[in-house]
Amino acid sequence: MPEIIGAEALSVELGAKRGLLKNRPGVTAVDGVSISVNEGETFGIVGESGCGKTTLARTLLGLQRESAGRITLQGADVSRSGRVGREAVQYVHQDPGAALDPWWRVGATLAEGLKIHGVADSAERQARIRDMLAAVGLDPALAERYPHELSGGQQRRVGLARILLLRPRVVILDEPTAGLDLSVQAAVLRLLRDMREKFGLTYLFISHDLSVVRRVCDRVAVMYLGRVVEEGSAAELFAAPRHPYTRALLAAAPRLDGAETGPALPGDPPSLRAVPSGCRFHPRCGLATPECATRDPVPETAGPGHSVACHRWRDAA
Ligand SMILES: Nc1ncnc2c1ncn2[C@@H]1O[C@H](COP(=O)(O)OP(=O)(O)OP(=O)(O)O)[C@@H](O)[C@H]1O
Ligand code: SF4
Ligand SMILES: [Mg+2]
C-alpha cells in the first residue's frame, strides 16, 4: 500500500520565548522523527507520558508548527501550511469530553462541524448526523443530550462521529481507550475496526497501553524523549523487541492473562530540559556502556521493516 502520511526528520520546539528583552529556550518535544504511514493500516505510536506523542500528532495535523523537517500527505508537501490542505487528517482528542462543548447539545456540536465544512442545508446535516450516530452504535436521540449526560464510552463514540462526519482519510486516535473499563474498551476497539473497514480509514493509534497496541496495530513506532527508538511490524516488535527501552516497556506492561509483570522501568523519564548526552536512554539502561554516554545511536536495520537506534541491539536478544 502507498504511503498516505509521512514525516521526515521532523522536529518541534515548544515553549520558546523570543523577544528583545527576554529569550527563553524551548524544549525539543519531537526530535528528528521520521515515520511513514501506509494507506489502510493502523500505525501505533507508543512511549511513556511526555515522550512527545501528542505533539507529533498536533504537528501532523497542522495545529503545531514544526521547527524542522517535512510532512507529506497523499504525496503533497504540507509542511508549514497549518490546517490548510490537511482536512483529510482528523484527530480524536485524548480527553473525549474536551472535544465537546459542555453548553451545547451533542447534535449542535456535530452540526457545527458540518457547517464549517460547507454543508449548508440543515435537513442534510440532520440526516447525516442521524446516520452517523447510528453508524457508531448510538441512538440518534442522543443528539438532544448534553455531553455530561453521556458515559465515557458514549462520549468517545460521539467524538468519533464528530470527525467521521468530516469524511477524513487519516484519523489520529490519541489514547482512544484510556480510562475505559475492559468491556467498554473492547467495544470501542471493535467499533474502530468496523469504522476503518466501512470508511476505508488509516489510523495513527497513540497509546501507552501495549496490550491494546499489540492487538490492533499493523506497525508500531516506539518513542523515547522525542525520538523514535524502534520501529517495526507489531508482530516482530512484540515477538523480538531489540531496543532495551522497548524490552523494558514490554516487561513492565500489565498482562491480559493476569500473570506477574516484570519490574517497572527504573527512574523517571528524564526532562526535556536536561536531555542526557549520547543515547538519551543511557541513565536508565541496563546494557549501557561508556560509549552510550557519548555517542548518539542512529537507526540501524534489524530485520525487514524493523529499525532500532541502539549501539547494542544485537546483544538485546
Ligand atoms: N507549551 C509547552 N511548552 C513547553 N513544553 C511543553 C509544552 N507542551 C508540552 N510540553 C512538553 O513536551 C513534552 C511532550 O508532551 P506531549 O503532550 O507531546 O507528550 P505525550 O507523549 O503526549 O504524553 P502523554 O502520554 O502524557 O499524553 C512533555 O515533556 C511536555 O511537558
Ligand atoms: S545505546 Fe546504549 S544506553 Fe542506549 S539503549 Fe542501547 S545499550 Fe542502552
Ligand atoms: Mg499525549
Description of the molecule:
The chain folds into two domains: 3-88 and 169-264, 3-Layer(aba) Sandwich (Rossmann fold), CATH 3.40.50; 103-167, no CATH class. It has eight helices and 14 strands. The chain has 317 residues and is α/β, with parallel strands linked by helices. The strands form three sheets. An eight-stranded mixed sheet has the order 8-9-10-5-11-12-14-13, with helices on both faces. Helix 3 (122-135) packs across helix 4. 27% of the residues lie in helices and 24% in strands. The structure holds adenosine-5'-triphosphate, iron/sulfur cluster and magnesium ion. Residues 53-54, 94, 174 line the site of magnesium ion (MG). It is found in: Cell inner membrane. It holds the Pfam family oligo_HPY. One of its GO terms (biological process) is peptide transport. Residues 10-250 form the ABC transporter domain.
Summarize the structure.
This protein has 8 helices and 14 strands.
Throw out a few tags for this protein.
317 residues; binds adenosine-5'-triphosphate; Rossmann fold; 8-stranded mixed sheet; ABC_transporter-like_CS; binds magnesium ion; 2 domains; 4-stranded antiparallel sheet; alpha/beta
